[in-house]
Amino acid sequence: MLKKPLLISFTVSRVMFIITLTLAAAVFSIRPSAGQDAPAAAPAPAIEKGGVIDLLDFNQVEITDVLKLISQKVQRNIAATQNVKGLITVYLKNITIMDALKVIADSYGWAFVEDAGIIKFMTNQEYEERYGQKFGLNQKTLVYHLNFVKPPEILNILSQIKTQSGKILADEKSGTLIIMDTPQKSKEMEDIIKNLDTVTKTEVFVLNYSKASEISEKINEYLTPSLGQQKVDQRTSRILVTDKPQVLDKIRAVVQAFDQKHKEVLIQAKILQIVLDHSHQTGVDWEAIVAGFQNLDFKGSFSILGATDKRGKIAIGSLSDNDFQVMIEALETVGKTNVLASPRITAVSGEEAKILVGTTKPYVTTTTTTPSSGPTTTAESVNFIDVGVKLYVTPTINNDGFITMKVKPEVSSATGQITTSNNNTIPVVDTSTAETTVMIRDGVTIIIGGLIKEENVSTKKRVPILGAIPLLGMAFRNETESITKTELAIFLKPIIISGDAQVKDDSSDAK
């Protein structure tokens, strides 16, 4: 009684499967490619290369049944892993067998591979775990034998370029690289290998005038990436460069272009003090002074400080005839003149030169330290400040014989002092400064005027012996205070020199 239902159930199930295959076969047909005759019993290779499916129509059919039907029709062995399961719906016309399988695999997240005549279906995850790359990724294999560089030297560079699924195998003994990646990445890595696997040379560049660090920065712009190298020895001013011969030729030209003998400027300076009389308390009218002397030609004048500034106007101009004695005679009309200094200094083009005429005043500061535990400590330090006339000049030599000069004069004086809580006295410094850039021809004198300094002068007079008597001596001594204004005039004459030739000394002009 129990066997009959089982037999019926089996029979019905088998009938349904046969009906399913029959219906599927009714919509599955294979035809040869255009221009080919349909073979009576076409072997698998012929169908794979030229067979075309006229119609492939499945609606919610188990994938394993579909693969079985395709396997029977194309006479190919198709196997699927246990994770390949589920119902599929597909409708394809006029498509090759392998393209049809790829459409099914791409649509439902599967993959397949042909191995030893068997088409193996699997999930994408299984494919990636087994073959180390994603399904459908077209890869190219490149075998390259290195001639000049070793595989480890180039392996790190290629590893940064390859895709995540790409592989690079290196055999250091034979100098062989095996690259497996997409065609695009393989081409990029091939170009890099050809660029790096080349003969290199090493050359030592000895610098005579320029700093090694400055030339090294320029060389970096020409080095072959990941191949060219340089080593800098600052002590001996040498640069060791390794690169391709053609690159070394370019670097050699760069070194020769920039390692040139530096041009130098001899700056002849004269600092003149003018004690202004009562009629010229606002300063020297330089244009009026120069206009009265035929030998002098003041080229120009402009203000650096404001017209209402208490220190007056800074005037800068040039003299076509460097007759210093004539200029002193002209300035004698506005006050007593005195040459404070006649320094001469040589500066390299582009480098700052500094001239100081004055004194250095020391002052003491006290630092008290109170730790969380232990006694309080007190330390004194001595500091120094420069007062007087300071002149900063930065000349730049142009190719047309002109010199661009950045000039910064500064006049300072200690006008008093303050006492701190620690009984330290710190000087109070009064400073006048200006800064400008001028361009003059080689050998022409530039004049900077208008640096006015105001001083309180205290004069004490007394009769000897009697003036020293307390109380009664007041009748025999006298003390007066007056305000004295002085203006500083700075004469600068830049002369371009080669460094090995003597320059005429113009110091006689100051006599």
SS class: alpha+beta
Q: Round the Cα radius of gyration to an integer and report it.
A: 48 Å
> Fraction of residues in helices?
10-25%
Describe the largest sheet. Answer: 6 strands, antiparallel
Total beta strand runs: 23
The dominant shape is elongated
Mean pLDDT: 74
Strand content: 35-45%
Number of helices: 11
What is the rounded distance between the termini? Answer: 147 Å
Q: Give unreliable regions as ranges.
A: 1-27, 30-50, 301-313
Structure notes:
The protein has helices at residues 3-26, 44-50, 63-74, 97-108, 124-131, 151-159, 183-196, 212-220, 245-258, 286-291, 324-331; strands at 29-31, 52-62, 77-80, 87-96, 110-115, 118-123, 140-145, 167-171, 176-181, 201-206, 229-233, 238-243, 264-276, 315-319, 335-341, 344-348, 353-369, 377-397, 402-419, 425-433, 436-441, 445-462, 477-497. The protein is an alpha+beta fold. Strand 5 (110-115) and strand 6 form a beta hairpin. The longest helix is centred in the first third of the chain and has 24 residues, at 3-26. The model is unreliable at 1-27, 30-50 and 301-313 (pLDDT under 50).
Helices, strands, pairings?
Elements lengths: L2 H24 L2 E3 L12 H7 L1 E11 H12 L2 E4 L6 E10 H12 L1 E6 L2 E6 H8 L8 E6 L5 H9 L7 E5 L4 E6 L1 H14 L4 E6 L5 H9 L8 E5 L4 E6 L1 H14 L5 E13 L9 H6 L23 E5 L4 H8 L3 E7 L2 E5 L4 E17 L7 E21 L4 E18 L5 E9 L2 E6 L3 E18 L14 E21 L14
Parallel strand pairs: 3-6
Antiparallel strand pairs: 1-2, 2-4, 5-6, 7-9, 8-9, 10-12, 11-12, 13-15, 13-16, 13-23, 14-22, 17-18, 18-19, 19-20, 19-21, 22-23
